[in-house]
Structures are given as C-alpha cells and as structure tokens.
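Handout, page 2. Input:
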Amino acid sequence: MSYTKNLKTLQVFNLLNNFRLTRLKCQKRMSTATKKETINEQEASTEETTHFGFQTVKESEKVQKVHKVFEDVAKSYDLMNDVMSVGIHRIWKDIFLERLGPCHGTRLLDMAGGTGDIAFRYIKYLANIPNPKNRQSHVTISDINQHMLDVGQERAKDLKYIAQSLPQMSVEWKCEDAEKLTFPDNSFNAYTIAFGIRNCTHIDRVLSEAYRVLQPGGRFMCLEFSHLTNDVLQWLYDQYSFQVIPPMGQILAGQWDPYQYLVESIRKFPQQEEFKKMISAVGFQMVRYENLSFGVTSIHSGFKL
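Output:
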C-alpha cells in the first residue's frame, strides 16, 4: 500500500517537473523570439534613410520605388523626356555625344541606358567617321530595370542596330546595378550615364564603380538635370516643373506620380559644384562641367589617370 502511494507521488512529481521544464523551454523560446523581434525592429528603425523625391524613405524602399517608376514609364520613356524637356533632350544628348567624341576602338559602358538613346547615337557617330584600320568598337548598354532594356532592344531591332548590320561594332545588353557592377576592373575606356544617376541611392558608390571599371586614361561622362544659374529662370522653371509636367504626364501617358517624382528628384540632386567635388573624391582628375540651357542640364566629365 505504502509502495503504491509512493509510486503515485513520484509519478505526480515527474509530471509536474516535466510541465515546469516544458514551460521554461516555452518561456525561453518566447524570450528569444521577442529579442529577435526587438533586434529586427531596432535594425529597421536604425536603417539609413534617403530621399525619394521629396519623401524620406528607407534606403531599401527607394530601390523598389525607383524600379516601379521606370517599370511604369518604360514604354513611354521618350514621351516622358519630351514632356520634361519640351523635346530639347534630343539636342542635349547630341551635344553630350559630341563632347565624348568617341573614336573607333572605343569600349563604352552606357549605364542607365536602357532605351538606347546614348548607345544609338554612339553607333551612329562612329558609323559616320572613317575607320581605315577596321577597328572593332563595343558598347554595353546596361540598366537596373529589365523593362527598360526590353524597350531598348526592340528599338534596336527597328533601327537595324543588330549584329548582322554592325560588322565593326559589338553590342551587349546587360541588367546591372550601377552601385554593384559585375564587370572586371579596367573593362572599358568610356563610361556614360545620362539622366540616371540622380535616381541611384548612393551616388558615391556609382562613381566609385565607374572609376573601377574604367581603364587608365578612360573617361567618365554624366548628363543630368541640374540647377539653373539665374534665380528668375529657376523660379520660372520650377513653375513649369511642378505645375505643368505632372498634369501633362497624366494627360499624355496616364501617369502622374512618376512625373511628380522625377521633377522632385531633380531638385534633390546636388548642385554642379558639389557634384564635381563628388566625382573628384573617388579619384577622377581633370573634372569639369558644362551647363546646357542655362543649367537646366549639365555635362560632368572626368578622367581616370
């Protein structure tokens, strides 16, 4: 009788002890989960912020938001540029290519060049100058947005800028992040980026990567919307930008928000002298800039020496 009673007492004790151990394990797991959640919240709250137009967003959000903007406007990108520049962007790009002055044998990386505007001008430019030594030239058109590249490749087919029609030119289309290029060091002797760098989260990283992939003697060139040198003209430009461009985007392309962002992004981009210092800071030399249309856009240039 006593043995049976003691056995039952022991069984109850073991049951209670197992329950206690199970509860402690659960509490420990809950505590660990809570700590992880707290750490994640702290990491989220301490994540660096940046601008998306006039909004302040987390850096991780900006990449997604910019990607969405250009995904939405890919098919109407030329129209967007026409609206934003009253068609003058075509002249600016012609001047940009003339300032680059490529020769046969050039290996060009055109970043943020999805729709091919700069690359096609490059191809046409070289086609119009003699090539007595039959030197082979190259252009890599790169963009972070595959939709933009798809539009550019369709345009290339329409213009006959394909391998069969370009015996002295090789063309490559590649989806790349300007801040983390996969190209080896010293791969190109010219790097262009037109109306794209202001959409990048870390401009300094873009510039560092441009410097890395250029060969010694290679040239960096950037065409970007900038800041007017005259206060009255700047005021007039602001009125046009904020009062006309977004409504026109809605009317012509059914898109208001992307145009609103693009206008705001121009105002957040560094002024000419500040951007010049950023280019110099990563190692480029002989850095200079040229204002076009009173500073509505500017061409910045530097050499890797």
